[in-house]
Design a protein that fits this description.
36% helix
């Protein structure tokens, strides 16, 4: 990466990426993030479970895409603070020539972006400083065009990001449609999204984020399914993430209410 001007991390205000890092047991967070995360844990004590199972879904979905259906190009938007294994590490273990573009506009992620650029010699990774609210900018960016061939299948990954785009302030369905429309047939959309369907306390957690100035909106299974309009849902469809193609039997103590985040994968015909 080229040298960049210093970025303002605003460590006196909580940040969703750093709160997520705290849930996962990471070290890239500050007192304001930890305090806000503890407030969220007070109303939804399973936030750490949600974060852990969300990461596990990302890895399984990526293995499915790279392994079972042979996708060799990924666009990961809303990347978050790098947490190993990152998407490119999962995919390149299966196919070393995989190409990945990471996109995020959070300053904290930008400061860690070099960790996302450790590609295999056969493959390639790139980092794009861009906002999901401007999908046209992402799709036309030189970093993307130099790395991915949009005439061939690409898997777009929107992991735990769309619940930060409320209906009133953004057009999340329109944004996803713009991204999918630009993809070649045989491309895929992978996403996860927090829900209050299974435990109303997840909505209280969203309220904690809102009180900190972080937009957040839990959505229902039907609302999450709408993101896949026009796509072929891969079995088992929109499912609580720990039940989506689990690698092993689900422990009885791991309840749907504890996880409270949906995941799904759809193919563009």
């Amino acid at each position: 990466m080229e040298d960049r001007a210093p970025v303002e991390l605003s460590i006196d205000r909580p940040h969703s990426a750093r709160m997520y890092d705290y849930y996962l047991g990471g070290k890239d967070n500050f007192p304001a993030d930890r305090e806000a995360a503890e407030d969220a844990l007070a109303v939804f004590p399973n936030a750490r479970v949600m974060a852990r199972e969300n990461r596990a879904f990302m890895a399984r979905a990526t293995r499915y895409l790279a392994g079972e259906v042979g996708v060799r190009q990924f666009l990961d938007i809303g990347t978050g603070i790098p947490t190993s294994p990152n998407l490119h590490e999962v995919a390149q273990r299966i196919a070393a020539d995989t190409r990945v573009v990471y996109a995020d506009n959070d300053p904290i992620v930008l400061t860690h972006a070099r960790a996302l650029l450790t590609s295999t010699p056969q493959g390639r990774t790139a980092y794009l400083d861009a906002d999901l609210l401007d999908p046209g900018r992402i799709l036309s960016a030189p970093e993307l065009r130099d790395t991915l061939d949009l005439t061939r299948p690409v898997a777009v990954s929107l992991i735990a990001i769309l619940h930060f785009l409320p209906d009133g302030d953004a057009d999340p369905y329109g944004i996803v449609r713009t991204l999918v429309d630009a993809l070649a047939p045989g491309s895929y959309l992978a996403l996860t999204h927090a829900t209050a369907d299974l435990d109303p306390a997840a909505q209280e957690m969203a309220a904690v984020y809102q009180a900190q100035g972080i937009t957040a909106q839990a959505r229902s299974r039907v609302e999450v399914g709408r993101f896949f309009d026009g796509l072929e849902l891969i079995d088992p469809g929109v499912e609580v993430v720990h039940r989506w193609r689990s690698d092993s039997p689900v422990p009885s103590e791991l309840t749907d209410a504890a996880v409270s985040i949906y995941g799904a994968l759809g193919r563009k015909p």
